[in-house]
Amino acid sequence: MKFKSPMEYINSAYHPSYNCKWEIENGKLYLIELTGTINNNLVKTNDFDHVFQVIDLNYLYPDQKKVLAEWYSGKISLVSGFYDIIRFSKDGKRIFRKVLHLSFENGKLMNEVMEYTFCPNS
């Protein structure tokens, strides 16, 4: 499947070609929502026009409300609050008060560590 490239049209806003929602339940990572736009190669009006099709989770996983993300192994970091930035590092990265680091292996939660950053002004 090929998602529509956000650069195929000119716009002042950034539009990702797909968005997902995830859920962690009983130590497992699930994909619970997917919305996206794909290039439907079956229909073309001419060489310059493309017909895009809006898809959802049902397109990839018919009749499933959530899908175990067994294809994912890696780390996910969740911050305490997107606007709760306490400072910026020398290389421009945002530093947050609390960051929860989650490690997954084949969609299963293997480890979680809460990282606290000391802030002398609070």
Mean pLDDT: 78
> Could you give the distance between the termini?
49 Å
Q: Find the structural class using helix and strand composition.
A: mainly beta
Major sheet summary line: 4 strands, antiparallel
Q: How would you characterize this protein structure?
A:
The chain has 122 residues and is mainly beta. It has two domains: 63 residues, no CATH class; 43 residues, no CATH class. Helices cover 3% and strands 47% of the residues. It is built from one helix and nine strands. Strands 1, 2, 3 and 4 form a four-stranded antiparallel β-sheet that branches. A three-stranded antiparallel β-sheet has the order 5-8-9, with no helix packed on it. A hairpin with a 2-residue loop joins strand 8 and strand 9. The chain is flat.
Q: Keywords for this structure?
A:
122 residues, four-stranded antiparallel beta sheet, mainly beta, three-stranded antiparallel beta sheet, 47% strand
